[in-house]
Amino acid sequence: MAASCDGSQSDQSSTFEPGIDNIYEAFICPLTKQVMQDPVTLENGQTFEREAIEKWFKECVQNGKPVLCPITSKQLSITDLSPSIALRDTIEEWRARNDCMKLDIARQSLYLGNSEANILLALKNVRDICRNIRLIKRRVRNPQLVRLVTDMLKSTSHEVRYKALQTLRVVVEGDEESKAIVAEGDTVRTIVKFLSKEPRRGREAAVSLLFELSKSELLCEKIGSVHGAILLLVGLTSSKSENVSTVEKADLTLTNLERSEENVRQMASNGRLQPLLAKLLGGSPETKASMASYLGELALNNDVKFNVAQTVGSCLIDLMRSRDMRGAALGALNKISSFEGSAKVLIGTGLLPPLIKDLFYVGPNQLPIRLKEVSATILANIVNIGYEFDKVPVGAHHQTLVSEDVVENLLLLISNTGPEIQGKLLEVLVGLTSCPNSVINVVSAIRNSGAIISLVQFVEVHDNDDLRLAAIKLLHNISPHMSEELASVLRGTVGQLRNLVGIISESTTTITEDQAVAAALLAELPERDWGLTQRLLGDGAFEKIISKIVLIRQGEIRGKRFERTFLEGLVKILARITFALTKEAQAVSFCRENNLASLFLDLLQSYSQDNIQMASAIALENLSLETKNLTVIPELPPPSYCVSIFSCLSKPPVVLGMCKIHQGICSLRDSFCLVEGQAVDKLVDLLDHENDKVVGPALAALSTLLEDGLEVENAVKLIVEADGLTPILNVLLENRTENLRIRAVWMVERILRIEDIARELGEEQNVTAALVDAFQNADFKTKQIAENALRHIDKIPNFSGIFAPTLANK
């Protein structure tokens, strides 16, 4: 035990450093009882460990004691310390011999058949020697020893594998030669395997070893080339179950691996994109091109696309200006522009001007066709986000993407390029025409350039579905503004109209987008264009439409995404034949043969879609207007001789099956009679609909029963029995739209011709007020009708009126 400066004994252990070679007493510090590392000599010739004697002197001073020699207890005149170089060298030589002998024993113990305890002791000795004696490290790290430790990774014992990983980390630290030996064969693959197969502390040891190995640039590619290595490391960096040390070491390892471009690409593939973006921003031109090219190949989620656009969007736009790198840049921009958020970032960063310039430029250094297609795709991606492109300049003279000259250039480019670019540019126009603020500009450019004919011709394309679909979408978008021109072009050709019908009637079990858009396009064309209806009728289009409607109703063809649009389009197309009933007997025959009145009535009540109810109600109105012309008036038998002489003996003949409204033989199938089809209740139900566009046609269909020449009183009773009076009055009172008010005033005037109803409603002040408002503020014809209605309820005397008495017709 060592003495303190006051002469007492400390509790310092006297255990010597274990050794195999003979140890000399001169090697031992009298204070620490350990082999000295830095021996120094006092003036009296006594030798101590430097750190220990300095501590002794300090304690003497702090305790107010004279500085004494720990051995002789005599006061020292000076405290100078002289390094004992010879003794230090001798100790180091002894320690080297001693450690070499330990390593020889360790090597003899490092084999898989040895006991676990012996192997663990051998591994500990190797670690201790490597940690404590830097001089011996060069000798420790010999190929044989490193390979023996590496073999221990194959042990069946978790503990041995864990200690072997720790030992290898100590062995390879700062030693390139040892790292190279560890990297031989499948050792790195084995270490990587431990990242997922070992218990937690084994994973931590494996990560620590990989971190040391990754400090060698030569081994970075080796580690990255092991299948799954980077994926596992990336997973560890985001793990919430690993300890902090493991996560940090995994992150540092990946940072080291970033020196290899291939590793950076793998990291990007596995969700660690930042290293790739950093090289894209700060790498050499070759590296930037490589990273941009790979970025264009990655599958990115929307959040990542947004981050990429913010981080390197401007860099990619700059690379577009380099002839050698613009292909890679365009590929990356194409990838990230498909998300609305990232597309907006790119617009704000200034992508559109160079993009448009490259698309339109013809001359030296112009974009190859392949890259023009990519540019067109990027533009289509961006346009389809619905941005306000009328506010984003794209040209030197402050033109925007919807400026007429820019749109005309797009149309010109469409006519002079191949199908792939044509399809993308048509998608651009689809995007622009989907925005209410820009569709008028596009329509104007199409109209002024006469491009409508060439656009319609794309409907005939059979070998490029995307091109044809884009063309049909564009035609559908512009149809509300160019319906007459479209109808004229389709009416004047054979192929395009038949192709549209052919697309709609394709035999499929799933409804396609092509079918839905083609049906929507035909549905938008003017329904009173008799020439177009004739073409459709002659081509058998309506039979095909009916077939598709029936199949959808039976559930034999489906398509959740497009079924609604498709069915709405089909019903509207079919309804157009009801506008031709007064012009063509063939149309009447077709409606009878296919029982269209019954079909529209079923559609009216079977579907809650507003557009289907609206189209069906309109069709029923048109059919019902024709009922009076199709009703069969029975021939009455001639009066008998007595009756002809004595008229007082006559009785009106009774004919069974007569319609109370049309006073003849009616049916839903042959004369389209709404009464015989029991349609009144169903139409009345629609009067409470929240959509005015449904209420209007339902009201119009009911009003056909109140026309001149029909039994209006019976019709009113029928409507009242169906609880239709209140909804009709509500339409009048609510005054939602002018069209609804006009229709409601007309119907109310007809209803008020029934004295009992007029007497009852005359007491309703709100009804009177609504009629007075119409009398004062409506159009001229409606004022006249409102005046007559007010006369029915005695609000205006019959002998005076503002307007001359007229028959109030619809």
UniProtKB/TrEMBL annotation:
EC number assigned by the record: 2.3.2.27
Reactions catalysed, as given in the entry: S-ubiquitinyl-[E2 ubiquitin-conjugating enzyme]-L-cysteine + [acceptor protein]-L-lysine = [E2 ubiquitin-conjugating enzyme]-L-cysteine + N(6)-ubiquitinyl-[acceptor protein]-L-lysine
Residue stretches making up the U-box domain: 22-101
EC class: transferase
Pathway where this protein functions: Protein modification; protein ubiquitination
Pfam families: U-box
Keywords for this protein: Repeat, Transferase, Ubl conjugation pathway
PANTHER family tied to this protein: RING-TYPE E3 UBIQUITIN TRANSFERASE (PTHR45958), U-BOX DOMAIN-CONTAINING PROTEIN 43 (PTHR45958:SF6)
Protein name as it appears in the record: RING-type E3 ubiquitin transferase
